[in-house]
Give the backbone structure.
Amino acid sequence: MHALLFVIVALVLYYLAYRFYATFLSDKIWQLDPSRVTPAYKYQDDFEFVPTDKPVVFGHHFTSIAGAAPIVGPIVAAIWGWLPALLWIVLGTIFIGAVHDLGALAASLRHQGRGVADFLKDLLGERAMQLMYIVVFFLLVLVSAVFVHVIAVLAEAFPAAVYSVWIEIPLAIIIGLGVRKKWKINLYLAAIIAVVIMYAFIALGIRYPLELSYQTWVFILLGYMLIAARLPVWLLVQPRDFINGIQLVIALFAATIGIIALAATGAGQLAAPAVRLAPEGAPPIWPFVMITIACGAISGWHSIVGSGTTPKQLKNEQDAKPVGYGSMLGEGYLAVIALLTAVVGLGVAGYTESYAAWGVAAWPAIFATGGGTFLVPLGIPAIVGATFFAIVAKSFAMTTLDSAMRFTRIAFAESTVTFHMPEILRDKTVSLLPGWAVILYLAMTGYGMVLWPLFGAANQILAGIALLAAAVFLKMMQRPTIHYMIPFVIMIVTSMIAMAHQIFTNYIPNELWALVIIGSVIFLCGVGIVIIALTTWNEKGQIPYKEIA
């Protein structure tokens, strides 16, 4: 089988899904209304609530959800062969992940742009909201700690990519100021120029790589995320995400054209088996394919983005379809390309060596070198192609790090109300510190990729709860719920089993007590929310729900 078939199948199915299923969900289930005043206008404060053009919001949302996770997950999951990963990426994205993302965004738009934990109070009561805040908080610190590790590994492994990634920050700030101050600039042209400048720095990086230790990068990133999360959304987050959105389109286009070129030369055959049921040291293929590939199929992180910064920027409620459902399809395609770097780009010998046992595969090298292989038929030298793909991975990971720290601040500040904490903790600076302290602990204790299965299980538990919240909301509006209840059952069963497996077969035997505590708390909070929802399910449709604009 050829890599090109993966591309064709994914693109055709994603197109059909957007054309028909997304339209059905938007028009018939959620009934998105272009005349409704969105939270961005109603609560405009020019810090979080900022009415923004659809392409910019799309770029922000797309790159916030499509961080390094849809790259890491498929590459790690390739140890079980290409078929389980491909099926989960394509079908999971269409029927579960994109459905989840659209639901989280639509529900938040109808609840003043509030976070999923915050508006859960309107659906299931204060106790459920409190439990949800705990789940969200721990997921966010896990996301941040994992991505500090991921970015530090990338920076150490590919020092030639460092300049290109960090020059993006001042470029984004200049664009943000230009848009804010109404300078006469063309946003698309400015972003394209920024991308060109980033890629021009590849030559400098290759000639004079910035080589710092892993530990040094961890300290730099911990400091950076504090500063970035405190800045207004328009100054760094929006323009940076727009630049990365263009960069992602370029990367996916280049990889796709490269795969077509490989087909023309007769290369590009699959190097991996279809299925490997029991690779050495690997956890069970189910549920861990669906946990390892979180972003790229479905991710609870997306419900945080979709009820965090994104609904505070949308000008038109109908934009939820392309931004919510459409962005998830784009991330799914990124996951397909990432999978191909492992099962095609490495070649038979490379795959055999990298996937001899669980934990052997070095995903940064696989994505960079495997992706660089796709560009060789286009006349791009392997070292340049590898650096290019390293820049893509690190840029997206930095975007996720920015957003995760910002969401941690927002979630903690919101939770202080329901937990009756002092008002000072809602300050935009003070509210950063509790989450940052936990991230600091997790990052400095050296857990690294040990956190990935815990993050994956927690991520999918949150995804299941977000699907359940959307179903409850639909029931209260007396609309069909089956499109959310079926995915909810699939995800909550899968994620709970995975979390229990990790706690009892990995963390307790290895005396990883911090991870035992975090995993147990998330598990019990998830069970509590599900019990509250199911015990009150029959009551939800009895009185029509009054929607909140």
The radius of gyration is 22 Å.
